[in-house]
Batch of 3 targets.
Target 1
Amino acid sequence: MLVITRKTNESIIINDCIEIVVTGISRDGVRLGINAPREMGIYRREVYESIAEANRSGAGATSALLKAKLTKLKPPKE
């Protein structure tokens, strides 16, 4: 992990296309501004993990539903 110090209005650049700017510092936390291409998804970790869990749950439900439907199929008559 890279750890660096930045002051308000200072930034870092990631991979030539993402800029992270420190927009404010207070007792409660740091405010960051992120400039990145629109097609790039940017999420807080807790939101990202929630989305990932929902996707895993949905995929599991889809697999179970598909398996249940496949077991009900009858082989074609010859």
Target 2
Amino acid sequence: MKDFYEIDYQKMKIPKIGIGILGYGFMGKVHSNAYRQIPHIFWPPPAIPSLIGICGRDKVGVEDTAKRYGYKGFCTDWHYLVNDPRISIFDNCGPDNVHCDPSIAAAEAAKHVFCEKPLAVSAQDAKNMLNAAKKSGVKHMCGYNYRFIPAVRLARELIEKGAIGEIFQFRGRYLQEPGHEPSEPMENVWYASGARSGVLLGIGCHVIDMARFLVGEIKTVSGFNKTFIASRPRKSGKCEEVKADEGSVAILEFENGAIGTLESSGVSTGRKNQLAWEINGSKGSMSFDLEDLNHLHVYLTDASVDEVMGFSNVSVTEPYYPLQSGLLPPGHNIGWEYGHINEMFHFIDAVVSDKPISPYGATFEDGYMVQLVIEAIKESSRTGRRIEIESL
């Protein structure tokens, strides 16, 4: 009796799609893992990611990552990925200051482009990237992965249904602590070393995207940026000036009449990775904290029993909630990496099935609009004036 059956993978009708990633650091590894997990969680997927090549400046480091995640090969010059006909998706996980040129070149080579956030280091670069992607007709997406956390998606759906009524206020913050200790070496403070992006560009962009995703377009901003520690030692012992902002606050006015605040910090002692927000509306309120990502706190005035009216701590782990894992059973918590898995699946599905990226995924247009808000906050901090956000 035959009880073992060989699977003929050659006869499977699921296509493969070639992936090329620029960057083998933290985010390159996160994306590599997401691509590998897609067939495990979404079955059958629109296409099975085929990890063709990964690129990085250090040959030893990028080779190690390529072997770890099962890439067919690796390179130290991103032009090889752009010119490789096997690659359909160019995934830019490089440092902020190398987002622009490689992404434009990939779009011009007719490759679909995914670029990590922030889209660029300036609004002009972001606009150039958007124009190149639109001109070539490729799919384009910016890596605002927190849109793909189930609790955040549920919040968006509740807002779309009118469950909390007219939105009045938004409060958002993204707090970390890497620079809180003045003696911490420059190399260990991500926002002050490397591309020296600062916290507003590096993590504040996530709060801005959350505000736009959940509330709507931002009309005006009044902001203030601050560098608290003027200089830091390098590991060599030499001191160097800190040129990046370490804290940022802003007051927002939305086009729909709502107001809001946002805050970003790299010196919030004790905060490891807190992205949190609260929204208040005429019929209810909601709040979310990334450090408790499986829950959404919801208060609705239409509760049926007055005696138990209050904030509900909603565990977003049941099958009827959005973006549920196809791997874990009901009631089992997902982790941070699932935001990226859901995000990369969304992009591949859009590419293969010719579906739109928006409104749930962030396009290069969304990335550009975030850059405009960032630059407006910086201008407000320099001039002391309220700044109006220019439209596309």
Target 3
Amino acid sequence: MSNPGERLDVLDGLRGIAISLVVWYHAWLVTGTSLAFVNFIAEVGFLGVDLFFFISGFCLFYPYARAVVEGRPMPTTQRFFMRRAAKIVPSYLLTLIVFAAVYRDRFASAPDAAVQLTSHLTPFFTFNLATFGGISGPLWTIGIETQFYLIFPLICVPFRKMPLLTYAGLAAIAEGYRWGLGATGLDSTFSYFNQLPAYVDLFGAGMLAAYALVAVRNRPALPDRRVLAIVSIVLFGCAIAGLSEIAWIDRTAGIDACYAWVNAHRVFIGPICIGLALSTAYAAGPWRRLISARPLVFLSMISYNLYL
């Protein structure tokens, strides 16, 4: 029987990679420091957010997947929201207070500061162009994450019974939204393509990966773990090649073209993440241990506060 902890430390490792990408990206934006042939990873490190959303969907649905497959008690909605609030709210409120004090000169006036702070006390500040990045640009991801929390219990209902079909529905919603952005020329407008509908398939991909991991955990007929390690390495290689392609588009055609390209191809990120998570979780020891190394797990543990 597989140890659930051994499987989930891989998700911690992937979260560690995600926060490393995001921090590296912001450090590159501030300093412009290049690291030779690997600098392209820093240039498109913003895609670490996509990996974050995938892992979030996984972690949120994992207890529900275990309840369905293993016959465990189903988590209550009240417990779900209490745990989310305990994790998100204290650090987020502290961040708002610090930013409001440090960046007070950025506000046009006292009423403007009041509007910005009040709007950021709800997850819906991303809806308004004036408040989307009014306090700190990266905070938009917290808004998207929290918006997904609000609809998660509703998505859970069909996902527990029809995971593949529900994921397909989420993918259709996300792709429809992204197609609409492309058709109207808004696919490179930051505040439009960074809204929840553009990411619901990534959250859903994480939920599907959680369900699949639990469903196959105790089945003896898994592929050879060395084969899974090779699959995982190949998928990592594909992800790095994709980052290289996006960075090349950024350099040659500009950031707007880069955003548009990502918008048009984001539909592939969810399936790649599913393949990465599952193949790495059951890969042969050395490769899996590399992905779940202690430094990455540590970064995973502090990822939320580090991001803020």
